[in-house]
């Protein structure tokens, strides 16, 4: 397992978090950001929810990173 494989895995994980829909997936399971209190962001659940929402706001850089990854895969085989 090399560094490139690790970076690809991280990119795939970020893509998976970015496509989660709050209304259809997160809210029925109690993971809605509006239901979460401000003081509870120190917990693991709060940290994970912050990560999910951060990746959802960073969609444009993810698209660019995906394009770079595709080009590198096409060139290197």
From TrEMBL:
It comes from the Eukaryota. Transmembrane segments: none annotated. Pfam families: Yos1. One of its GO terms (cellular component) is COPII-coated ER to Golgi transport vesicle. Coiled coil: none annotated. One of its GO terms (biological process) is endoplasmic reticulum to Golgi vesicle-mediated transport. This is Yos1-like protein. It comes from Manihot esculenta.
């Amino acid at each position: 397992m090399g560094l490139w494989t690790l970076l690809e895995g991280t990119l795939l994980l970020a893509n998976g978090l970015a496509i989660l829909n709050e209304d259809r997936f997160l809210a029925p399971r109690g993971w809605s950001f509006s239901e979460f209190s401000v003081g509870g962001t120190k917990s693991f659940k709060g940290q994970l929810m912050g990560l999910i929402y951060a990746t959802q706001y960073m969609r444009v850089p993810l698209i660019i990173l995906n394009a770079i990854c595709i080009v590198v895969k096409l060139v290197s085989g």
